[in-house]
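pinned: reference chain
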Amino acid sequence: MKALVYDGPGRRSWTDHADPTITAPTDAVVRIDAVTICGTDLHILKGDVPTVDRGRILGHEAVGTVVETGSAVSSVKAGDRVLVSCISACGRCEYCRVAAYGQCLGGGGWILGHRIDGVQAEFARIPFADTSTYLLPAGVSDEAALMLADIMPTSFEVGVRNGAVKPGDTVAIVGAGPIGLAAITTAQLFSPSSIIVVDKEPARLDAAKSFGADVLVLPADAATAVNEATGGLGADVVIEAVGIPETFELCTRLVRPGGHVANVGVHGAPATLHLEELWIRNVTISTGLVDTSSTPMLLRMLAAGRLDTSRFITHRFGLDEMDEAYDVFAHPQDSNALKVALFRS
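pinned: its structure tokens
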């Protein structure tokens, strides 16, 4: 088969690779029908995730068709259309028993495209198939479901839910890439009074407006805009959706006393935490890896027409155009790309 293989920082190739096989009774082999690229994949290619070995197939977001299952798999069978979750869950460990699947102690967590071969390939081995894949309702397209593999549950759980967004809140979102836009979408489920989005790219601010942001602002003007919108108090919830020191530190300046900073971005370098300023302001800071415990709920909303994922994908490719798709996704300032989707031909 063909697969996108990581060969160290800055090096990737769409190349021949051995087909995956069942190695444990809980495995499934899935034919990849639709796949996307994540900002985390770009972090890996920059060298920000040194735990990824050379030779690893990247990717952790896909929709596919089951072609084979291990003897212990009971909830999916050959021929089923499934969403492949970015998080694998053994379903038995202490963390999985409380739906904290991202912290799985039984060999799961974020392993696809990280610790084991991922899904940017023609076929993929999915461990713990019963608890790491989701049957797709008949009326849900591959493209629509693809956004539920990672960005929607990530933004909802790590940003909106961990940030404790409430009706009437002022929510500031720093970063209008796919995660930031998903945060806009899922924050709206809680009826905030205002959503302020901060980004340096005009095209992404335009996208944020189309997703429902109320105030659009450049980073240099963010503090003034938030103060004007809140009477000088600051935002109730600030969601960090970039993953660099400057954006995290900006978030801590935008939050009001008693407010919440929810960090979603993947950081590859240390950020300064100004406790000398924050300790007296009763600020809560949360971080997290998505657990995907919300995926079944989001799938139900998608099937019922209560969740719109159609606006995220701006570029579509065939699987064999993986290199071109990476180039487009990695340079959104030139391509205006949000999410790219690649499909089996």
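why pinned: The longest strand covers residues 28-36. The mean pLDDT is 97.
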